[in-house]
Task: inverse folding
């Protein structure tokens, strides 16, 4: 039997704007259409960031409700919301006020420092905060997707798993690389290989690299037995000089690649079974 690969479409991120590529989905209806197109192309999960009315990053439970509802109305794809805060990690806890929570939510493991012309912002995702956040997710029946930013992030994840009450197997995690923030690992093939080997069998791992090395990360992840994450969060370019037309275009390429390796994309139902999620 061919190995099933879970394909995640990371459709917008916090930074990409329509001014850079008009195909970036921002509003709930756009996100729902992008999710359906990605599902039809072979994705099992849609990962999205909440945006406000002007396309700005938001941490709003009412908008999360709307996005999740619109996506579920158009396709059976698994919904996975980012919990990225705007100014302080405590903001993310407000998302649990949403009436209809997604099946999965991401949680960033690491200490991130963002420097901009407007000043510096530190996101101190300490182990104590991560534990509290994970317990909150567990109480709401939401499966975490761990966003690992460095080797120290993997240490945190394995330590919290060993405590036995806030993380459970099978874990799902993505190695995020190349983001322009202090504390986030640059793309490194050896790092990716070594980090994959640290996690217990059954952990569902993928990798994503912002920029032109994303495709290399996808291919290496497949060779290591992992899953795939692609989308306009990571890159707005299909190849040098050619802008991405849609998130589905990136999913289609990933599916072609994995099929060349005699693998098959998992359906949302198959991905739910692999991840231990409730069936629809």
Result:
């Amino acid at each position: 039997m061919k190995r099933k690969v879970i394909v995640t479409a990371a459709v917008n991120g916090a930074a990409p704007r329509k001014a850079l590529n008009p195909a970036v989905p921002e509003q709930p209806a756009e996100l729902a259409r992008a999710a359906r197109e990605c599902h039809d192309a072979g994705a099992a999960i849609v990962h999205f960031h909440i945006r406000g009315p002007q396309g700005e990053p938001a941490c709003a439970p009412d908008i999360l409700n709307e996005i999740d509802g619109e996506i579920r109305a158009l396709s059976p794809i698994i919904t996975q919301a980012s919990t990225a805060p705007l100014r302080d990690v405590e903001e993310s806890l407000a998302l649990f006020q949403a009436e209809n929570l997604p099946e999965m939510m991401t949680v960033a493991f690491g200490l991130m420092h963002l420097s901009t012309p407007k000043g510096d912002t530190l996101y101190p995702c300490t182990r104590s905060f991560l534990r509290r956040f994970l317990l909150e997710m567990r109480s709401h029946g939401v499966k975490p997707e761990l966003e690992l930013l460095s080797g120290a992030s993997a240490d945190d994840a394995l330590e919290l798993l060993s405590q036995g009450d806030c993380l459970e197997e099978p874990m799902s995690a993505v190695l995020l690389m190349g983001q322009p923030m202090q504390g986030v690992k640059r793309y490194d093939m050896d790092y990716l290989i070594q980090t994959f080997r640290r996690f217990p069998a059954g952990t569902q791992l993928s990798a994503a690299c912002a920029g032109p090395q994303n495709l290399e990360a996808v291919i290496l992840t497949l060779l290591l037995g992992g899953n795939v994450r692609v989308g306009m969060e990571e890159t707005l370019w299909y190849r040098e000089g050619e802008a991405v037309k849609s998130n589905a275009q990136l999913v289609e390429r990933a599916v072609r690649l994995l099929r060349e390796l005699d693998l098959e994309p998992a359906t949302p139902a198959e991905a739910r079974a692999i991840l231990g999620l409730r069936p629809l």
Notes: The helical segments are 28-41, 61-74, 127-139, 151-163, 189-198, 214-223, 247-260, 268-275. DSSP finds eight helices and 13 strands in the chain. The radius of gyration is 17 Å.
